[in-house]
């Protein structure tokens, strides 16, 4: 939860353990989200067992996922061996274990273009909600942080960055997807929400994602993209140089603090 704010999604308790939601149970280290995920995996396993024609899809990120998993194991073992607490270590990597599970599981259930389109729509809608939350808080404080460090959670600006890249890809490759229109309409909300989040990690993620995006383009498309990106980058650099020490230039100060 954010200091100074009491957003209603937190009250749902989807990420809280059962023994916190219902102390009378006396047990329950799992969260509703984990139970939900386990049920999804169980149902899929049952379908595989009952249908002989189900094909196991290989994850396109199998090698990075394997290396990431090995890194998690090594770091936990090292931490515990040097005096860390096992239970706290497992709690700290819990979200990363979800990520590994989803890398392996999602290719099994998202197999068509239509399904991918639906998943992207859900991601856009949920992140738009979070960006709108941050924007409303920011506007409500007179377009300032109002003494708060941030108007959004740690991860939210980082999760918005891929949507900026997605929109850029739609524009560069001339896609007519309905998501392109939605992202265009929501762009002011995402930009304001990203700024109101005021997270250094968000700006670092934006820089890394932008560089990776340009590098991964084909030479012909990259040349077209650079014709737009280079002038914008120069304009942005001039803006930062002029307003670097100006307290009234909030965006420049946000980049400076990053």
Overall description:
By secondary structure, the protein is an all-alpha fold. Helix content is 72%, strand content 0%. The chain is built from twelve helices and no strands. It has helices at residues 8-12, 18-21, 32-50, 62-81, 86-92, 94-109, 113-140, 156-172, 178-197, 200-216, 219-243, 250-257. Helix 4 (62-81) runs antiparallel to helix 6 and helix 8 packs parallel to helix 10. The protein is globular. The two termini are 22 Å apart. The mean pLDDT is 82.
Helix content bin: over 70%
Amount of beta strand = under 5%
For the sheet with most strands, the description reads: none
Low-confidence stretches: none
Q: What structural class should be given to the helix and strand makeup?
A: mainly alpha
**So what's the overall shape?**
globular
Mean pLDDT: 82
How many helices? The count is: 12
**If you compute it from the alpha carbons, what radius of gyration comes out, rounded to the nearest whole angstrom?**
22 Å
Strand segment tally: 0
**Helix and strand string, N-terminal first?**
HHHHHHHHHHHH
Question: Termini, distance in Å?
Answer: 22 Å
Features of the shown structure:
globular; 12 helices; mainly alpha; 258 residues
Structure summary:
It contains twelve helices and no strands.
Topology, please?
Layout: H1 8-12, H2 18-21, H3 32-50, H4 62-81, H5 86-92, H6 94-109, H7 113-140, H8 156-172, H9 178-197, H10 200-216, H11 219-243, H12 250-257
Helix pairs in contact: 4-6, 7-8, 7-9, 8-9, 8-10
